[in-house]
Amino acid sequence: MSSQIIEIEPTHVHTHGSKSTIRNFRLSIEDDSNNGIAVELSCLGASVTKLVVPNYSNDEVGASSDDVVLSYTSPLEQYDDKNSPYFGCIVGRVANRIRDG
Predict the structure, then answer these.
(1) Whole-model pTM?
(2) Cα four-point dihedral sign 24, 25, 31, 32
């Protein structure tokens, strides 16, 4: 019977100005053969910043892992007016604003 290891760990803390703090968390699960997935979430809109999954496209033993999320390289880029502030966000600008939604 194989066992699985589940981890939750803080990864990055970014500051914007003097008041805003953005924290990232990594959730990962691995099995005995070191195959697994990992997702990195930002507290800024619950943005998915990384999703790392095994790449089984080749027939090699010990597949590599790839990040499959299109996201900013830094959470601070979401503050930039040129970029959409809701890119990759799970929680959008109308969260907690729609009555009986």
Answers:
(1) 0.67
(2) positive
